Every structure is written in C-alpha cells, then in structure tokens.
C-alpha cells in the first residue's frame, strides 16, 4: 500500500483528487492527509513517512519547489498538480517527472498512479535533477550562461530577442544585433528561459514575448519581433500562444 499526502491550497481541487483516490485507488493508495500550506506540509513530513506526494506547484505565495528545497530528505515520489500550462510544467517534463493539470482528469490520474507503482523509487533522481536546475536558475539570477571555446559569457535574459535551433547548436539573437552560437541544443536552454517570458513557438524557435510587435494571421501565423524578424508559429502552439498574449 502506497502512503500518500495531498498538498493543495484549493479546496475544490483537493476534494476532487481525494474523491478519485478514495474511489478508484483505495486498494493501492492510502491518503494519510490533506494539507494546504508549505508550513503544514513540512510539519507533517517531519513526523510521518510517505511514499508519494501530490504537490500543487503554487501554494499561496509560495511554491511546491520551495517546499521540496526545505525537506530534510526526499525519499518519496512526487506527482505535481497545476492549473496552468506554465514554465513549471516544462521544467517538470524536462526532468521526466509526472504532473496533472487541474481540474484533474480521472484517466490521467490513473495513468500517473500506475507509473508511480511501476517505477517506485526511480523518479527520485529525476526530482533531484529538477531541483538542481531550479536552484541554478535562482543563483544565476536573470542571466544565462553561454559557453564558448574561450570561456563563458553571462547574458541578461532581457537582452535576448530569440533563440534558434540548428541541430546540436543554438543561435542567440540579441537586441544589440549580436548573434552568439552555442554548441548545445535549444531544449537545454528552454528550461532556463521559460520562467522569464520566453515561449517556444516552433520546434526551432524560442522567442522573448516582450519583444513581440505584431501577429500575422495564418494557419499557425507568424510573429514579428522588435528587430523585424518574422518567426513562424506552429499551428499546435497557436492556441496557447494566443492565450498568453491575451487574444483569442
């Protein structure tokens, strides 16, 4: 039997998830408690041992990541929950961890639980990878490290207009007209830039949303940036992009 705790500050979301767990998974998961704050969660985890944590990404003024950074020893698996298709989801996916979008879908919950049972402790390394990456972002601040043959250049993220993938290389286009090429894939930089207002509009393009000047309609459409660059938008990314930009 998997011992679990639900950390969620929205009553309706907590009750929905609790109902599904008690209805569909009572033979495999024992829900020990529901708490609604980082403080309550830390106090509970000091006293009780759990196998699985259902963790809301946003907990009032704090985040689930802040909670994990304060836990003395992470020896449990985590399924994140969130109401938003935001940067946190990209980071979680990048680390190969599981998450549920709210309102929680019954079938998606079933798949997540099955994954937990199958993988047992295997996700702990992925969780450590996620926390290290987020910690690195905090230490670096609003700059990104771009390695080259002669050293590492630290560029303020607001100076970046867009990033373009080129097989195993990434081209950075800056506001001052410079172009910097780095021998790493775009995916490796995406997780660092998404928290700072960047959006992947296409497999090959990650753009700074603050530099968008115009949207041209079309199947997916295209964005015109402040430097005049016209970047195609993949049709599958159009809906989410329009939501973020504030237009249907």
UniProtKB/TrEMBL annotation:
Boundaries of every Response regulatory domain copy: 3-117
Pfam annotation, one family: Response_reg
Domain of life: Bacteria
Keyword vocabulary terms for this entry: DNA-binding, Phosphoprotein
Domain HTH LytTR-type: 144-247
GO terms for MF: DNA binding
InterPro entries per record: CheY-like_superfamily (IPR011006), LytR-like (IPR046947), LytTR_DNA-bd_dom (IPR007492), Sig_transdc_resp-reg_receiver (IPR001789)
PTM annotation (4-aspartylphosphate): residues: 56
Protein name per UniProt: LytTR family DNA-binding domain-containing protein
Provenance organism: Algoriphagus taiwanensis
């Amino acid at each position: 039997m998997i011992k679990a705790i639900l950390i969620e500050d929205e009553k309706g979301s907590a009750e929905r998830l609790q109902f599904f767990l008690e209805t569909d998974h009572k033979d495999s998961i024992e829900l020990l408690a529901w708490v609604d704050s980082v403080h309550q969660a830390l106090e509970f985890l000091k006293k009780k041992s759990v196998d699985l944590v259902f963790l809301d990404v946003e907990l009032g003024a704090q985040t689930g990541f802040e909670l994990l950074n304060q836990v003395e020893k992470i020896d449990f698996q985590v399924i994140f929950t969130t109401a938003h298709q935001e940067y946190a989801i990209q980071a979680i996916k990048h680390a190969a961890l599981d998450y549920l979008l709210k309102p929680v879908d019954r079938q998606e919950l079933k798949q997540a639980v099955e994954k937990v049972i199958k993988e047992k402790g295997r996700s702990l390394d992925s969780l450590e990878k996620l926390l290290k990456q987020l910690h690195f972002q905090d230490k670096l601040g609003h700059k990104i490290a771009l390695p080259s043959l002669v050293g590492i250049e630290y560029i303020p993220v607001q100076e970046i207009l867009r990033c373009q993938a080129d097989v195993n290389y990434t081209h950075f286009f800056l506001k001052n007209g410079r172009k910097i090429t780095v021998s790493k894939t775009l995916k490796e930089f995406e997780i660092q830039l998404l928290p700072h207002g960047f959006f992947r509009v296409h497999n090959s393009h990650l753009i700074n949303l603050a530099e968008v000047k115009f949207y041209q309609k079309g199947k997916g459409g295209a964005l015109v940036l402040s430097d005049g660059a016209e970047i195609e938008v993949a049709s599958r990314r159009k809906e989410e992009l329009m939501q973020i930009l504030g237009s249907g």
